[in-house]
């Protein structure tokens, strides 16, 4: 009898506990998603609804004026084009370089792999600093060129670590031995065995580098001077954070201009973020994989 | 978390014989894998040029940089730049701002992903769990520039969402970004909003790896859900928690430049000027290269010392460490 009572009481306590968890998680969910919906709604509302604080959740007086203005602004379209270029080109360079070092380091017969690994990982915990790095980039005459965004931060050590541990765990030693007996060269083996077997890790590398490159602004801030080379993030900073939208709409009346400039900010955020957030649900598992591969010691 | 450096020190072996066999091994490896050595060269060059050469350039900190003479031709000044920095009244402000900001971030931002993971782990319905995970992970993909733009739009003095809300409630508007006292909270809580879901993933994976027989044993013993979390989940998470904590504490002085710089304005500079933003403004905007290099080097050395220190502490008091 007593044990039964105990059981019922405990499960009631557990039920309250569970309700608490569900309520908290729902609140967390709303707190995260609300600002995103608010921005999306604002971006497709009318300029006057945005500036008079009428938008709370859903769009008010749906209009696409913000987006239309964006697409007619050369500064923004140049930034968009530049960002696409930096992302495509930068990702290609980064992934290629990462595989080129991660694969040899995964081979047991590669002489010197421990010291090389040590040389690489040390750069994770110590760096020469901002100015000394800037001086190197400057002495290579990369300042104010597109290369400045593609080369100086091309390789992330973390990516080498996860790619290497993937190669180590999923390219069977027997395959390597068999290929060596058949007289297959290392490069041929990489091309026809390693790369086809490593699609999951290549997806992780491509996605992480691509998002990193699309979202980056720091290198552009310190290395670029010409506005026609600026990536979208830097254009965004100038328009939203520094509030320089005058160049976009000289010809309009003061009030109209002010309203539109508010709306433009929301539209810009959407335009800059949507490409990434739209593919994200489909590729989330690769990111999770990337985090977890790296956290398994090996 | 895998900063494991395999140390097979050749020096420890008996000298003569080792030398021969090592060079023999190297020669054989080179001959057999010459293609691998060729492809590894460009990435290695990258590390030497963009990571190690700057470390050499850091001698700038001990020189008085002169554009015409270049880094190596400029005169040595010993510790002058460091002395200048330590005696500058701004020194303690920078240290204080840096430590306070990352300390606050650590205190508030470290436990939340753990709590989130523990709660998500209790949820039975797979759909709800996946929805919460999907949504809380998403802000991680928002760039720093967009994140700061969102903060500025929401907290804008006149038209910002928060102030419009305050006005509706009959309260006065607050110029959030102009209040130095608000800066740290804005930084920290927006960071938590952005990264808590991402950081929870690693704990969720650790929770999924806990031995199921432990839960069965807890069930047999009549443990409540809370007791189960306390006695099974938390001990199971401990190794992961320690590793993440080491990384966070070791990086306390390395708090990122990007977001702080964008949130900075003349009004909140009292609390928002940290070492990395100071290096940027002194070095690149004022072109005071030597002094900025000294400040940056000081910061890098502190980071390194902190990381090594925390790691050895963790090694002593638990069995978890980075290397």
Automatic annotation (TrEMBL), chain A:
Organism this protein belongs to: Paenibacillus sacheonensis
Organism lineage: Bacteria, Bacillati, Bacillota, Bacilli, Bacillales
Pfam families according to UniProt: BPD_transp_1 (PF00528)
Topology in membrane: Multi-pass membrane protein
Chief subcellular location: membrane
Keywords for this protein: Cell membrane, Membrane, Transmembrane, Transmembrane helix, Transport
Protein's UniProt keywords contain Phosphoprotein: no
UniProt domain ABC transmembrane type-1: residue ranges: 80-281
UniProt xrefs under PANTHER family: ABC TRANSPORTER PERMEASE PROTEIN MG189-RELATED-RELATED, POLYGALACTURONAN_RHAMNOGALACTURONAN TRANSPORT SYSTEM PERMEASE PROTEIN YTCP
Name recorded for this polypeptide: ABC transporter permease subunit
Residues passing through the membrane, by range: 16-40, 84-103, 115-135, 263-283
InterPro entries in UniProt: MetI-like (IPR000515), MetI-like_sf (IPR035906)
Places the protein is found: Cell membrane
Family named by the database record: Belongs to the binding-protein-dependent transport system permease family.
Gene Ontology, cellular component aspect: plasma membrane
Gene Ontology biological process terms from the UniProt entry: transmembrane transport
């Amino acid at each position: 009898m007593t044990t039964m009572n105990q059981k019922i009481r405990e499960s009631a306590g557990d039920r309250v506990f569970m309700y608490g968890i569900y309520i908290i998680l729902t609140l967390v969910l709303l707190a995260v998603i609300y600002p995103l919906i608010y921005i999306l709604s604002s971006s497709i509302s009318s300029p006057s609804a945005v500036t008079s604080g009428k938008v709370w959740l859903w769009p008010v007086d749906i209009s696409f004026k913000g987006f239309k203005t964006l697409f007619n602004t050369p500064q923004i379209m140049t930034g968009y084009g530049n960002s696409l270029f930096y992302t495509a080109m930068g990702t290609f360079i980064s992934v290629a370089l990462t595989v080129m070092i991660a694969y040899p380091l995964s081979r047991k017969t590669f002489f010197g792999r421990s010291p090389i690994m040590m040389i690489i990982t040390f750069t994770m915990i110590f760096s020469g600093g901002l100015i000394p790095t800037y001086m190197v980039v400057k002495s290579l005459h990369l300042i104010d060129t597109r290369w400045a965004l593609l080369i100086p931060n091309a390789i992330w050590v973390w990516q080498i670590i996860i790619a290497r541990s993937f190669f180590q765990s999923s390219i069977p030693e027997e395959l390597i031995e068999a290929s060596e007996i058949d007289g297959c060269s290392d490069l041929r083996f990489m091309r026809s065995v390693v790369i086809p077997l490593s699609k999951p890790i290549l997806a992780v590398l491509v996605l992480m580098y691509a998002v990193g490159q699309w979202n980056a602004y720091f290198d552009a801030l310190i290395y670029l001077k010409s506005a026609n080379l600026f990536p979208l993030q830097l254009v965004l900073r100038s328009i939203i954070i520094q509030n320089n939208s005058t160049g976009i709409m000289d010809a309009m009346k003061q009030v109209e201009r002010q309203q539109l400039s508010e709306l433009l900010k929301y539209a810009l955020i959407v335009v800059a973020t949507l490409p990434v957030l739209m593919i994200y649900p489909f590729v989330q598992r690769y990111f999770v994989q990337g985090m977890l591969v790296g956290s398994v010691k090996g | 978390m895998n900063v494991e450096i395999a140390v097979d020190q050749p020096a420890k072996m008996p000298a003569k014989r080792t030398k021969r066999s090592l060079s023999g091994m190297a020669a054989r490896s080179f001959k057999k894998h010459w293609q691998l050595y060729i492809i590894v060269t460009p990435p290695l060059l990258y590390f030497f040029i963009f990571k190690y050469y700057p470390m050499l350039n850091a001698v700038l900190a001990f020189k008085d940089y002169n554009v015409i003479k270049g880094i190596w031709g400029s005169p040595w000044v010993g510790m002058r730049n460091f002395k200048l920095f330590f005696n500058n009244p701004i020194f303690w402000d920078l240290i204080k701002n840096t430590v306070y900001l990352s300390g606050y971030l650590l205190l508030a931002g470290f436990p939340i992903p753990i709590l989130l993971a523990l709660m998500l782990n209790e949820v039975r319905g797979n759909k709800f769990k996946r929805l919460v995970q999907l949504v809380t992970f998403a802000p991680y993909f928002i760039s720093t520039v967009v994140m700061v733009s969102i903060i500025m739009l929401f907290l804008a003095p006149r038209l910002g969402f928060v102030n419009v809300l305050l006005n509706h409630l009959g309260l006065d508007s607050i110029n959030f970004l102009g209040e130095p006292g608000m800066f740290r909270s804005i930084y920290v809580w927006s960071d938590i909003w952005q990264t808590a879901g991402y950081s929870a993933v690693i704990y969720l994976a650790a929770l999924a790896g806990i031995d199921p027989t432990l839960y069965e044993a807890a069930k047999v013993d009549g443990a409540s859900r809370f007791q189960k979390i306390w006695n099974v989940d938390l001990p199971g998470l401990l190794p992961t928690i320690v590793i993440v904590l080491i990384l966070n504490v070791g990086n306390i002085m390395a708090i990122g430049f990007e977001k702080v710089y964008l949130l900075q304005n003349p009004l909140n500079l009292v609390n928002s000027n940290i070492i990395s933003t100071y290096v940027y403004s002194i070095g690149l905007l004022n072109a005071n290269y030597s002094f900025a290099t000294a400040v940056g080097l000081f910061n890098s050395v502190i980071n390194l010392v902190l990381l090594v220190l925390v790691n050895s502490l963790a090694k002593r008091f638990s069995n978890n460490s980075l290397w």
